[in-house]
Each structure stands twice: as C-alpha cells, then as structure tokens.
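Whether sequence alone determines local backbone shape is best considered at the level of individual chains. The sequence in question and its structure tokens are set out directly beneath this paragraph.

===
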Amino acid sequence: MSVQATARITAASGRHGTTVLPVLESGGPLAVRRTRAARPDWARVTMVGAMSAPLNGDRLAVEVRAGAAARLTVGSAAATVALPGPGPGADPATYDILLEAGEGAELHWLPEQTVSAHRSVLTTTTRAELAATARLVLREEQILGRYGEPAGTLTGRLTVRRAGRPLLDQQLAYGPGAPGGWDAGAVLGGHSAVGQLLVVDPDFEAGPPEPALLGPTAALTPLAGPAVLVTALAADARLLRELLDEALERLTGHR
C-alpha cells in the first residue's frame, strides 16, 4: 500500500531576535524534530525517517515557511533512499517540497542526499517562493544507484520565484526512461553523484560573484537576479559534498 503524507514546518521571528517554531508537524515517514542551531538567533529542524520511503507509489510532501525576519535551517538525519515498490506496475513515487521565505527571512534547505536505487522511480518537485529581501541557501544532491548497482529513474524540477517573478526554473532527469544522453560524456561523464547549490542573496544585486570553475567538475554561474547556482559532479557522495561545502563557504563564509 502506498503512503501519502505531508510534514509542515513554520518558523517565525520571536522576542530579542530569536526564531520560534509555531508549527512542527510530522507526517507518515517524515518525522521532524527541533535540534540545536549553530547560532542563537536561528532555529534548526532535522527530518528523521520514521520508515522506509519513498517507495514507488508513495506521495510525500514537505512544506517549510519562514516568516518575516525568521532564520531557519532544515536538514535531515540521513539520506533519502528511493526504493522500488513491493510489486510490479506501481506508480512513480513523488516528493514535493514547498519553501517560502518572507521579508528579511533567511532559509537554508540542506537535506542529505537522495539515493536513486535500482528499479526505483521518483519524481521530485521543489518550489521556492521568496520575498524581495529574503535569503535562500538550497542544496540538492543526487546519488545515482547504490554501490555496485545501476541508477533508478530520477526526475527533479526546481522552480524559484522572487517577489513574484521567476528566478530559476529547471528540470533534470536521470536513469532508464530519461532523455537519451543523460549518462554521456557531455552530461555525467561516468560520474554517479550530481548536485547543485543555489544561493539567493539581495546583497548580490550590488555585485554578484563572477562566473568561475570550481575544479574540473564544478561551475559557479550567476543568475539573472541576485542569485548564484553552483553545479557539480563527483565520483561519490563524499567528494560531491566537499565540492558543495567549499562553494558554500566561498559564497557565504559558512559551511
């Protein structure tokens, strides 16, 4: 039997510059817990898997809202492993993520990797709605297949709007059924780990970072707006995280 579940997280500005969490709602396999933040004016939430998911046919969603002047980091305790369903003919699993940040808010979406196991089929959608003065740090990492196995089918779409206007809209697809050439030399070139880091910061309007190569398999690209997108390939999850951590420190001063 497939699972349908939604987890909800809402952060708001509290007294003396703190951030409070008026809504912390778990759903199905998505358990959310408040954990210790690195800075006293921030709140941090960690998602903990309460059961194996997503399986083919599951419908999972996470809604994260950071109100005006709130500062929130959302991470996860472990990788999300997309698995095949218990029987043949199951529908693809879906994982929908909604991120909202109000005026003066700062939201960091930093989950662990998504692992696309062999024969799994997962479609993810991430939508971010940002106020004009909001800041966003978003990291996505995909591992195509567990050790020694081919990739499953993984499709992901990322849409970001700032002050009601489009900032980024892209779709990526890997594995069986994806458009031809997804694993060719001009795309993955034999790498099984792929990721991206998006930083949206109103301060970039005064002087965005210059385009740059970050080693042989990563690139920093300014967007048409106060934002930067880093894309990276690596042989494994550890090397991919190192690349994205270095890029994050370069852009924000923090890992």
